[in-house]
């Protein structure tokens, strides 16, 4: 077997630890050599589980790990872009957790850094981790659509509903999350771009929302349930729903309506293949969170990113598409708050329309 | 058994014949005594099947049928209001097919006629036939919601997707249908009002749409796929999808998201309880049209309307709610065409907002 | 419309009242003119609901109702055969509830009476009410099988699971029910004959069973859960499960495995199209009893039986097949109790085999 | 991390290669060091993929691999027992593919060898690979049953239906497979023992079968579809169906009926979460074979076997239970061929009963 990709993970909170685990133990061609985190207890946990080196400072890690080839950026969203750029400029491969940033401009700066760097390091891979692109069901759906099985995909519906967390976590989280459309719907927006084609241009977005269970979200200009509609140039439309109040667990489903058929993904959610027949009827459980739903996809992501780096093959997704998704998410979030429809011209520039 | 309700049906095209059949043979407490239609072949078919009297002229029928107690208006939408009003003014009970009219003003005129008439005929019943209100599954869902099982209903999603009809029928039909939101989504809008409460007031509507399979619909300012979002006062929102291009058949489904749970109706559509295991996988069929899905509901409608007339009990639904549904449908259709968000103040009056 | 079939119902207990209702109000071509029952309160209830004549004595009813054309025998199973024969001998049409009798010989005597009578009354119709044959899903399945969609039907699996009734009702009931295979599985056996062909000959039966929740059933040589396997001549086999302890409600499902595919009926049982998303997962209810599952089938049965009588068309099912079902049910019940496999030769005669 | 378990795989045909892959790349705590096979092309493929040492002779491998700790026996069933015993006698850990042997006596000899060996090597682990025991859905079901959620498990139904393979492969295969009950149903029998308790004693078995698609199977005393029923002491019964003619793919499902509820596993089979809405209805695919259904379970098996060996913890399943499963499978196969019910006394000895 060829040499293993030398990987470090920046940020080993809940999701960072999972990434570390996927690279350390479930990605045969990768080797986790180091992690960094400002939180000592997180470093201790990582060291205990993986036996890797640990750093409290990101740059120190980059400086000292001489064999380092790839960095997984799984820190707080607010530092994603900065950390990604530092790694990019050193010619390292980067897998950056979504979103690159809650700002389209900052997101674009990462793409710009990559465009500059790749001239020097032509084999460098930088991707944003849209995990659903690695999910077997979404891939099956996309392959069928690409094979023409549903004719022209024309209408897209997708929703990301998180399980209700009555702890108030999401209120504090909303201060930096970029809002529900940027935090939750970013996946659905990315999927819309993937299914409609990443070149597809947005024409308008409109959103509405409520605070049904967490009125304090309004302090941070956020909502706990929101609906959005997106018009694309070329006769394609999309419908989004994002929510923080699903009782049963995580419910992420998507439908693509084509001129000759429809593909539905996860419209009958389930935890596993068990059904319980009880005096109250037939019951099945569903995953409690996105990791319960997408664990296998994250593992596939780690393996494919690794293979792309080692074999210098095309990365499994395009970085610029991630910027586009952030821009659409931000526009939806703005419409949600202002109540205004936001329109774009064919070049992607915003149109300020008088509706009088 | 008490005496049977003496019923006539105005309009015996496809759906009118079904109404006639429901009253003639599947409503034990009703008797179909007459039908009218301008089309002689339709009258002949009705006479052959039911042995009832037939008329080419609606007013003649009203004049000559001295024992007539109730009229089912199942003629072309364009004459619904006029025929309904003529029957109302004579003190007859009326079951009018939806929509009352494609115009909110004309719809309101039927309500006004009823309000005037009921002073003279206090037992008179006039309803608009929103068949889904009589469907066992929707009723079960509504009862559970009303019992508080999902907390406060906050988000509503509903779609009406007709099977693709490549014949071009819908292009011609669009000239008088009022548009896809008035023709298809009217049921979903009525359900939103039913689940959120008929007093709920609309705050804004926005819609977008495309012509994916029938570009000629644009001649009549219509679309074959459309998405709409509705804001209501009181922190409730709704999402609609209507389509004329579903490959598999009729797909009408609804979800009501509450603060404590969700109820889904028909999100796993099926024709019956049969699953076919074939070399290509597992397959089930779905109803080809709304009648395949809602036949039992129509029969329940006939029976409950009859009971309400004979027993002088509260009619199974409110007429003024039907006007509200038409008004919302028309606003969505307008937004679909103009691209503008339409807003309403708390009294239901339209607000002309500058978005500058 | 032609004249209505004049119908009487013998026995107006729970199921008899339902038959009466189906003929009185849901079978347009029939008229319920009389009922009989030894229980005065049942007669009072029937009179109040249908306004029909009532009799405490069956023969008196037959004697006095001069216009009577058809009798529905829905009394206790122990008098089914006797009442059926009395009606048959007068030339009346008969719809006899299943089973004709718990004895194959007595069941055969009804067939013999019919064979004798039909020479005198060539238009006479006598059927045994296997309701599932009138169910839309089973019919769809049968039509697909008959059309060759699954190749040669070769393996049949069917189960009838009643909701657990902790009242002890089934213990008392077992004294006269004929046992769980005759009472419950008779439907599954009838379906096996229908799907494999009514000429199909049984080769062997074996059964085993337990008393998991009602040990007192052993007093009447019965069990609350039983499994049976049936071999037919011609390379076809069947598997049955009958139970009295289903927690969730009535669960009746069937699968037919052919050389080219499988048809499954009701393997995903449901009360209606509602799914409830709760903190414990996704839940749906199922029918509480067989009437909740098969109400529409009973109504279809009433209408088709009526049509067959009035129009002198082929009855919707064959009476001799019902005798065959009873014989197989009795053999399974015997095997259940004795522990022995029971074998039949090609002429249907029992073979006493030494297994030494 | 502790040192990795040094593993060799005997037999690298289709399933052996999968085992090799699971240990080489998906079991972080294991290292694949060698494989053996009499087929050079298989060795070449293994060497190319894993870079491990290769042997044409099993004993040579055992002799030369001085660091070897564990052997996976994935060769032809006919040599399972012999190879397992050789490894056992050297004190190696063994994961033996199912069945240990098609003969209960030979299977027992492996257990005997292990019982003798473990006195010398008290940390030695020997298991038979019943993959379903490692499947997340079966485990969830078992945990719920063990927690008392369905009361006393009383009736067990399970089926293993392989996709129809028209190539004739299964005819040749039947010569050594032990027959359909030993080859296919062994998993279902093992599950019955697991759900009912491994101490549960069989009281009788009866089986019937047909050759619906492969009449040549009769040459080897086999069938392509078979039904079996099993009585256990203690009031528990089981129903099996095994088939080689499923059109849609692999369909393995299981139901456990308890006194208070039922658990169903995979009664709505699916390949993934995709549903296709086409002009013919709604369709989903199912896995083509057992590996498509149980791949994750095999990986879990490899990891848990490895952990048990390295940490000297209780092996994930008991070896003697595997012998019991073979004995029941053989009895069912015998009953299938002879047509006789086979009975056992409470000590597990066969009872020769006269049925006269």
Fraction of residues in β-strands of chain A? 25-35%
- Quaternary structure type: homotetramer
What integer value in Å does the Rg of chain A equal? Answer: 21 Å
| Outline type of chain A | globular
List the secondary-structure elements of chain A in sequence, H or E: EHEHEHEHEHEHEHHHEEEEEEEHHEE
Structural class of the secondary structure composition of chain A?
alpha/beta
Let me know the number of strands of chain A: 16
The CATH homologous superfamily of the largest domain in chain A is named Dihydrodipicolinate Reductase, domain 2
Largest sheet, strands/sense/barrel of chain A: 8 strands, mixed
Largest interface: C-D, 46 and 47 residues
Please state the average pLDDT score of chain A.
95
Give the N-terminus to C-terminus distance of chain A in angstroms.
Answer: 67 Å
Domain Gfo/Idh/MocA-like oxidoreductase N-terminal (chains A, B, C, D): 6-116
GO cellular component, one term (chains A, B, C, D): cytoplasm
Domain GFO/IDH/MocA-like oxidoreductase (chains A, B, C, D): 138-263
Pfam families (chains A, B, C, D): GFO_IDH_MocA, GFO_IDH_MocA_C3
């Amino acid at each position: 077997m060829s040499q293993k990709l030398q990987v470090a993970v920046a940020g080993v909170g809940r999701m960072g630890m999972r990434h570390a685990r996927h690279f350390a133990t479930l990605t045969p061609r990768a080797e986790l050599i180091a992690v960094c985190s400002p939180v000592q207890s997180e470093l201790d946990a990582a060291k205990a589980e993986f036996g890797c080196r640990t750093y409290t400072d990101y740059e120190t890690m980059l400086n000292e790990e001489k064999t380092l080839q790839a960095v997984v950026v799984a820190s707080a969203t607010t530092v994603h872009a900065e950390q990604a750029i530092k790694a990019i400029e050193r010619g390292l491969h980067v897998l950056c957790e979504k979103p690159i940033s809650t700002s389209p401009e900052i997101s674009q700066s990462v793409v710009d850094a990559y465009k500059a760097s790749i001239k020097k390091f032509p084999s460098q891979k930088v991707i944003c981790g849209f995990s659903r692109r690695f999910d077997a069901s979404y891939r099956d759906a996309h392959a069928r659509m690409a094979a023409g099985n549903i004719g022209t995909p024309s209408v897209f519906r997708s929703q990301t509903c998180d399980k209700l967390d009555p702890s108030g976590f999401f209120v504090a989280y909303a201060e930096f999350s970029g809002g529900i459309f940027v935090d939750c719907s970013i996946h659905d927006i990315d999927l819309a771009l993937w299914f409609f084609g990443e070149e597809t241009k947005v024409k308008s977005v409109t959103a509405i929302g409520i605070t049904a269970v967490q009125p304090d979200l309004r302090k941070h200009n956020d909502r706990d349930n929101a609906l959005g509609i997106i018009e694309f140039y070329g006769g394609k439309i999309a419908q989004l729903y994002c929510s923080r109040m699903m009782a049963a667990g995580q419910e992420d489903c998507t439908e693509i309506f084509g001129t000759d058929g429809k593909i539905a993904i996860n419209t009958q959610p389930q935890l596993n293949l068990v059904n319980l027949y009880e005096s109250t009827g037939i019951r099945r459980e569903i995953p409690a969170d996105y990791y319960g739903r997408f664990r296998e996809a994250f593992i596939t992501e780690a393996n494919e990113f690794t293979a792309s780096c080692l074999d210098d093959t095309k990365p499994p997704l395009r970085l610029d598409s991630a910027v586009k998704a952030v821009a659409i998410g931000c526009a939806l979030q703005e419409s949600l708050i202002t109540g205004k429809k936001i329109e774009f011209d064919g070049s992607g520039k915003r149109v300020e329309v008088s509706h009088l």
